[in-house]
Design a protein that fits this description.
Length: 374
C-alpha cells in the first residue's frame, strides 16, 4: 500500500531525527490604590507576590485541556519548574495530563472560585486560554458570549486586583471583511462577523484599557490557525489543516470543508507556544504595544495537499464546503503582518510549510507505527 510505504519511510526518518513534538500606565498598580475595577469587599486581598519575592512566576492556565494548554504547560514547566505551573479546565484531565503536574478544576464563570485559586496558590501569571472557537461559537452564540466575554471580565478583574501578568490570546478571527486582508496589519479596521471575533476584539480592547487605566500587565498575541500533532483543535475554521494529516495517514483520503483556494495564516504549535513564552518574558519597555500579530506562513488547502503529496503521492483530497466555515474563512486575513512583533521583541518563526509537513508526518507516522507494534 503506497500510504503505508510512505508512512514507513516517514517513520524511519522520524526515528533518526527528534520530532518537534508604550505606553506606561497612567496610574499605579491597582493593588496599591483603594479603587478597583470590581467593587470588591474590604477583606479582598491585594497582596500579590511581586517577581522579586520569588525565583519563578507561579502560573495558572485556564482552559488548559484544549489544543494548546497542555503543550504550553509542558514548555512553562520546563522553564519554571513543574509545580509552578497549574493547568485548569472544567473537563476531566486524561491520566497522562493529571500525572504530569498540578491540575485544578476551574470554571472561569465562577468568579469566587477563580479568586480562591489565585490567592491560595499565590498565582503571579495568568494565561487565559478558555474560549469557544469560531465554528463552535457560531453554533452556540449564547454560550460563546458568556465564556468569551463574561468569563474574560472575571479574569481581567482578578488579574487587576491581584497584580498578575495576564496573557490572553487573540486571533486572526479578530478581523473581518472590511479589514485589509493581504496583509493584515496590527492596527486597522476590526469588524469581525463572528461572536468569536467580536469577543476577541473586546478582549484586546478591555485588556489594553485595564493596562492604561489600572496598570494591568496585559499581553496579547493574535495567533494564526495553530497546527499540532498530539492535540486536536476545538472547533475552529482552521481545523482542516490538522485533520488532513490524521486522515491522510489513516486512510490516504481527506474531505476538506473549505474551498481549495482559501488562504489563511497558519503556525506550527511549537512556534506558537514559544512566542507566548517570549512575549510573557519580554521586558515591559520593549513592548510598544500590548496586542501583536504573529505569523509564520500562509497557505491554501490545495497548497497544503500538494506539500503532503511530496511524501504521500497517492493522497486524495475532495472538497465538501461547509458554508459557515467558508464564510468565516473568506472574511479572515489571508496573510498576517507581524513586523511589529519582530521589531519589538524579536519574534521569529522556525517552521515554514515544508518543515511543518515533515514534522507532522514524522510525529503521526511514528505514533501510528507504535500503535501497530503494540
Ligand atoms: N487553536 C488555534 O488555532 C487558536 C487558538 N487561539 C486561542 O487560544 C486559546 C486556546 O485555544 P485552544 O486550546 O485551541 O482552544 P480549545 O477550544 O481547544 O480549548 C478551550 C478550552 O476551554 C475550556 N473551557 C470552556 N468553557 C470553560 C469555562 N467556563 N471555564 C474554563 N474553561 C472552559 C474547554 O473545556 C477547552 O478545554 C483560545 O483562547 C483561542 O481563542 C487563537 C487563535 C488560534
Ligand atoms: C484561528 C482561530 O482562532 C481558530 N483556530 C479558529 O479557527 O477558530
Amino acid at each position: 500500500m503506497p500510504v503505508l510505504r510512505n508512512l514507513t519511510k516517514v517513520a524511519k526518518q522520524a526515528l533518526l531525527s527528534t520530532p518537534g513534538c508604550g505606553c506606561q500606565p497612567l496610574t499605579v498598580a491597582v493593588r496599591t490604590i483603594s479603587f478597583s475595577p470590581r467593587q470588591v469587599t474590604s477583606d479582598a486581598s491585594f497582596h500579590s507576590v511581586s517577581f522579586s519575592e520569588t525565583d519563578h512566576p507561579k502560573v495558572l492556565i485556564t482552559g488548559g485541556l484544549g489544543q494548546l494548554g497542555v503543550g504550553l504547560a509542558k514548555l512553562l514547566r520546563k522553564r519554571f519548574g513543574k509545580n509552578n505551573v497549574i493547568l485548569s479546565d472544567i473537563r476531566k484531565p486524561p491520566n497522562n495530563v493529571f500525572h504530569s503536574g498540578p491540575f485544578i478544576y476551574s470554571d472561569i464563570l465562577d468568579y469566587k472560585n477563580l479568586r480562591e485559586i489565585v490567592v491560595n496558590n499565590r498565582i503571579t501569571w495568568l494565561v487565559h486560554y478558555s474560549a469557544l472557537l469560531s465554528a463552535v461559537g457560531e453554533a452556540n452564540v449564547a454560550l460563546a458570549r458568556s465564556v468569551n466575554i463574561t468569563g474574560l471580565h472575571n479574569i481581567l478583574d482578578i488579574a487587576a486586583e491581584h497584580g498578575l501578568r495576564l496573557f490572553v490570546p487573540s486571533t486572526i478571527g479578530a478581523f473581518g471583511p472590511s479589514s485589509p486582508r493581504n496583509p493584515t496589519p496590527d492596527l486597522c479596521v476590526q469588524r469581525p462577523r463572528t461572536i468569536y471575533g467580536v469577543s476577541k476584539v473586546h478582549a484586546e480592547l478591555m485588556g489594553e484599557y485595564y493596562h492604561h487605566r489600572y496598570g494591568l500587565d496585559f499581553r496579547c498575541l493574535r495567533y494564526p490557525g495553530i497546527i499540532s500533532a498530539d492535540s486536536m483543535p476545538g472547533g475552529g475554521t482552521t481545523d482542516y489543516a490538522v485533520q488532513i494529516f490524521h486522515d491522510a495517514i489513516k486512510t490516504g483520503k481527506f474531505e476538506c470543508n473549505l474551498r481549495p483556494d482559501s488562504q489563511l495564516p497558519m503556525m506550527y504549535i511549537d512556534d506558537c507556544l514559544r512566542a507566548t513564552l517570549e512575549v510573557l518574558e519580554a521586558p515591559a519597555d520593549t513592548l510598544s504595544m500590548r496586542t501583536y500579530n504573529i505569523n509564520a506562513m500562509s497557505f491554501t488547502p490545495e497548497e497544503l495537499a500538494q506539500e503532503l503529496r511530496k511524501q504521500m503521492p497517492e493522497l486524495e483530497v475532495t472538497y465538501n464546503i461547509d458554508p459557515v466555515r467558508q464564510a468565516i474563512a473568506d472574511s479572515w486575513p489571508m496573510d498576517f503582518d507581524d513586523s511589529n512583533a519582530r521589531k519589538d521583541w524579536g519574534w521569529k518563526h522556525d517552521y515554514d510549510l515544508p518543515e511543518l509537513v515533515q514534522t507532522m508526518l514524522n510525529y503521526l507516522g511514528v505514533e501510528r507505527c507504535m500503535a501497530h507494534a503494540n
